Amino acid sequence: MNHPLDRPVWTALTGRQQAFAAGDAATALRFSPEINILAASADASSESLAALAALAPPGGALVTVEGESMPVPPGLTVTKQAMLVQMLAEHPAAPEPFDHLALSDADAPEMLELATLTRPGPFVSHTHRLGSFIGVRVDGRLVAMAGERMRAPGLTEVSAVCTHPDFRGRGYAGRLMRIVMAHIVAAGETPFLHSYADNHGAIALYETIGFRIRREVIATFFQRGKA
């Protein structure tokens, strides 16, 4: 029996995060464009792949995260493909007292600016609405953040963990992650995350706070030509 995280995007969009879905659950779904560019097809049939391609606007992009390789949808070009490790924290480290703040719609422009600079993963104007986000400000400037993204039965993803290059090395990422993880555990769920498989420094950090590698999955970045 397949694990729900073998196809995390499809699991999220057909389950707990249906409210954010665009498309047709019979063939292909994506997060609404203002929320994220993650997408998935129901299967590898030509009908589903064509429907997936249609979810990308002219000149737009989609990203899939799959346990197995999928055919390229017609009309889309692969711009990047990378192996990710999927990690679970069944015994997460306890949070530490740490001065942080809850982030909201009012912080959205700064959150997008920080994510665009540091590239923790796909992040657009309203990605922060997928869950709770927290951050650190220094002299009024948002310099680090972490939050929640995809959801599966009993599981919530820790995501958008990033720190401005000028403020790295201060332990912000790990401390923020512990707080996000504690929030997830308090809801009776298990935290999970994705990391590029070659980002050994990040993986080592995640292991110190309780994450363990579950499996590898494939992230594929697609681009559609302009009309």
UniProtKB/TrEMBL annotation:
Residues 98-227 form the N-acetyltransferase domain. InterPro entries: Acyl_CoA_acyltransferase (IPR016181), GCN5-like_dom (IPR013653), GNAT_dom (IPR000182). It comes from the Bacteria. Keywords: Acyltransferase, Transferase. GO terms for molecular function: acyltransferase activity, transferring groups other than amino-acyl groups. Its EC number is 2.3.1.-. Pfam families: FR47 (PF08445). Gene3D superfamilies: 3.40.630.30. SUPFAM superfamilies: Acyl-CoA N-acyltransferases (Nat). This is GNAT family N-acetyltransferase.
